[in-house]
């Protein structure tokens, strides 16, 4: 069985304690590789390697850092098909999604930050006629980068690329549930000639390897994407140590459809925002608010399409819905279907496991599920389920739509569908979310700030925000020479 290795100091190495965890293929339910069960000693090695590499990397010209990151992007592109397959096997997502979304985006992340750093500038402030202040931005040192399982290479590269582009060195800890493409990335970084220790990848569980990284005194910058509960735990460790932290957390995103929306566009995009990646996207629109006058028409078309989504072997081209990522995630989603029934929800389609035969007969599949009849304050409408499950909630007025949208602890993203431009602007201002999409979903521009509000996180990633996050601004104030005649020379 294939053994994944840690990437430390430029080498692929086994965990010091020699312990491994089984890595399951969700579509079959069977283990297919082993992932290091690293502990604090492996994290210590990773941090030591990052520290050794830091003095040279942080002074390496931006053009050279850029060249190396562009080389990584090229290698991802050269190996795109292999990586897509690896991502599909590891996560259970349809290979066509890995091919069209995960892997191209991982390459774009490297390419984007490799070129962004060449244009990154800082501010200067002239203080009357007395002085000039300029902002010196320096890398912050060693960054800890922790990522989840739903978009493994996509989200890990979204952190690695800006951290390295700005001259930090890093220790990354991918999700132990989906480690394979991070391992493949470490091989590609070696091939690209990334200097040893600039990036280190330590595999293992959150409580062991993750907590050791978070708590390490020499890791002063922490970028985390994952669940809200874990985020709170990480914040409680980082706050007393005054670490700089960005937390990208869970969501319970509203998808608001007004009667004047163009249903021909709304329905296919809402199918994607509900069920792409089996609903395991932090930005999934899991609560659909529909203006009551069109609810029936919308449901008829939406449910009909949801019923025809092809649930199957993720490696087959025709598959639209793959497996859920793990037994724990499968059980969690199934338990929410039970809660939905107890709360009086009406299940219009799905609501149970799907059986896919052949090699996938032991796989973790759930049919796309649409539920109505649940109030905004029900558990199903309040808690992040993170599976192929959406609720549909009618509304009569704009105010009702806004208050429903804002009625959860989360605030990651929202979609609004309307042809009324004034209303679109009003909602964009009133909805509590880090991103509001008007007449679209998941249309991403890597330059824009990305992140949540409320329990969806703190700090922003993306574009300049990421370059600023991974650098420390220092103000340098230079007074103009004093004129011996009394004033300042000008
Ligand atoms: P998770 O919080 O369980 O794990 C995320 C990562 O944190 C993993 O690498 C895990 O090993 C590590 N971890 C766990 N406990 C830790 C600890 N005590 N200290 C340090 N590290 C620890 O999340 P998950 O189940 O892997 O991912 C799903 C969640 O991620 C969902 O809530 C989803 O909404 C969220 N997510 C958010 C975004 C975003 O951009 N806001 C993007 C994707 C996923």
Q: In words, what does this structure look like?
A:
This protein is α/β, with parallel strands linked by helices and about 500 residues long. Helices cover about 40% and strands about 20% of the residues. The chain has 15 helices and 21 strands. It has helices spanning about 40-55, 60-80, 80-90, 95-115, 150-165, 180-190, 205-215, 230-240, 265-275, 290-310, 325-340, 380, 400-405, 420-430, 465-470; strands spanning about 1-5, 5-10, 10-15, 20-25, 30-35, 125, 130-140, 140-145, 170-175, 200, 220-225, 245-250, 255, 285-290, 345-350, 370, 390-395, 415, 435-440, 455-460, 470-480. Helix 2 (about 60-80) crosses helix 6 and helix 4 packs parallel to helix 5 (about 150-165). The model has no long low-confidence stretch (mean pLDDT about 95). Nicotinamide-adenine-dinucleotide binds near residues 148, 150, 207 and 211. Nicotinamide-adenine-dinucleotide binds near residues 149, 230, 233 and 248.
